[in-house]
Automatic annotation (TrEMBL):
Belongs to the binding-protein-dependent transport system permease family. This is N,N'-diacetylchitobiose transport system permease protein. Residues 95-311 form the ABC transmembrane type-1 domain. Pfam families: BPD_transp_1. The chain crosses the membrane at residues 35-54, 91-117, 129-153, 182-208, 233-252, 290-312. PROSITE patterns: ABC_TM1. The keyword Transmembrane applies. Keywords: Cell membrane, Membrane, Transmembrane, Transmembrane helix, Transport. Residues 1-21 are annotated as: Disordered. The keyword Transmembrane applies. It comes from Arthrobacter stackebrandtii. It is found in: Cell membrane.
């Protein structure tokens, strides 16, 4: 007969309480390496962007005229340029036109880009490659080269568009599509959207590839239609991607210049088709009033910050 041997235990000391072991508190020290790595980039950005913005701000408080073209220093006039601009009906017409243009162009770009992204997800590998290569070629084409082709297509003397319409019995021979502001901006929106869709479509497609197929299969097994899966599952999951591409498109389309300027040179009337970019160019390079042009540039910068502030604020809330 054997008995189990037990290890001797220490008898508790009467009148004394054995303290429980306290958890070890480890204070994590944040590494400063990321700060040192990003510091050179911040310095370069401040040097590259800070000086032009500062120069624009200082110039906006000065008055430029004919004397300044012969070397006479510009006169400091304070907020006179801003008061003149804010009380000018022409500026607010250009601002309203620019905001409407960027809203329509950005909305169409995101809508068409989203549809193309869904199409790339549904087609086979060969069709997807053809779409991606075609969009990359359109996106990589230089703006001036692309505008040369577009101007040739809509030229009122030898344009392909008028030639095709005449062949279909439409009396469009010698019609200048750029003379009317409505048709001018329709063509401008088509060109801007055509140039911007590849970036949006590829960005949204990258977001679609991150959605788990099991979630969509489960929804299909529960009886959800394709539209219901797109509306209630796909769109909510890629909302961050849609938000950032829409914000970028609003900013880019608000600052559009090259397409509008080349279309104006091809037959449009500048005073009736000016957006903020071409309006600043007309004031500065065209009229030599760099003080007023700088004031409009500062106003445009404030407008851009106001448009993007909501998204930046939501990003900061999510980060916190």
């Amino acid at each position: 007969m054997s008995t189990d041997a037990k290890a001797p235990t220490a008898a508790p000391v009467r009148g004394r309480r054995i303290p429980e072991p306290s958890p070890v508190i480890r204070r994590s020290k944040k590494s400063k390496a990321p700060l040192f790595l990003i510091l050179p980039t911040i310095v370069v950005l401040v040097a590259a962007l800070g000086y032009p913005v500062g120069w624009q701000l200082v110039t906006s408080f000065k008055k430029f005229g004919l004397k300044q073209q012969f070397g006479v220093p510009a006169e400091f006039v304070g907020f006179e340029n801003y008061i003149t601009l804010l009380t000018s009906s022409e500026l607010w017409i250009v601002v309203g036109r620019s905001l409407l243009f960027c809203l329509v162009a950005a909305s169409l770009t995101v809508a068409i880009g989203g549809l193309l992204a869904l199409l790339m997800q549904r087609v086979g590998t060969a069709g997807r490659l053809i779409l991606q290569v075609s969009m990359l070629l359109a996106w990589a084409m230089p703006v001036v080269a692309a505008m040369t082709v577009w101007v040739w297509l809509i030229d009122w003397r030898r344009g392909v568009l008028n030639w095709i319409l005449v062949r279909f019995g439409v009396d469009a021979e010698g019609h200048n599509w750029l003379a009317d502001p409505i048709s001018f901006f329709m063509i401008a929106i088509i060109i801007v959207v055509w140039m911007s869709v590849p970036f949006v479509a590829l960005s949204i497609y990258a977001g679609l590839t991150q959605i788990s197929g099991e979630v969509l299969e489960a929804a299909a097994m529960d009886g959800a239609t394709g539209w219901q899966r797109t509306r209630h599952i796909i769109i909510p999951l890629i909302t961050p991607v849609l938000s950032i591409v829409l914000l970028l498109q609003l900013i880019w389309d608000l600052r559009v210049f090259t397409q509008i300027k080349l279309l104006q040179d091809a037959g449009g009337f500048a005073n009736e088709t000016n957006l903020l970019g071409t309006y600043i160019y007309q004031l500065g390079v065209g009229s030599g009033d760099y003080g007023m042009a700088s004031a409009v540039s500062v106003f445009m910068l404030i407008l851009t910050i106001a448009i993007s502030w909501y998204y930046v604020r939501s990003l900061m809330k999510e980060e916190n």
